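ingest -> validate -> predict -> emit
validate: passed (alphabet ok, no gaps, 131 aa)
predict: started
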Amino acid sequence: MQNTIQPKFREVVAKLRESLTNVQAVILVGPEGIIDHMLDDKSLNLETIGGEYATLLHIARSASEDSGSGNLVENIVVSEKSIMIARTISPEHYLILLARSQDHLGRARYELKQAAWEIQAAKRQPDRSQP
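emit:
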């Protein structure tokens, strides 16, 4: 899966950075941790964010499924300094956006939804690099 989505991730991140202001990081997380990332805010510890947020997403996914609410699609964490929005790409893969401001939360959610959709579409395409 990594071979099919990493090139698309880079393309999608470039679009996100053009569409949104105050982006601190975009992270692609899988079951083994961070697959790829873009970091604009060097003060962030991506390994900690990836590990802790992956745990939170696992709990949120279980709670959503166990309660009969369906599959987890999106999770938003708002802190005093930033927002974190996670969008499901597959049951074990998430695209996470960190931004400094809540001012454009709706726009950030929309752009991340589009980005996740593009990565999902790339994932469904056969990997042409393999013989």
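The longest strand covers residues 23-30.
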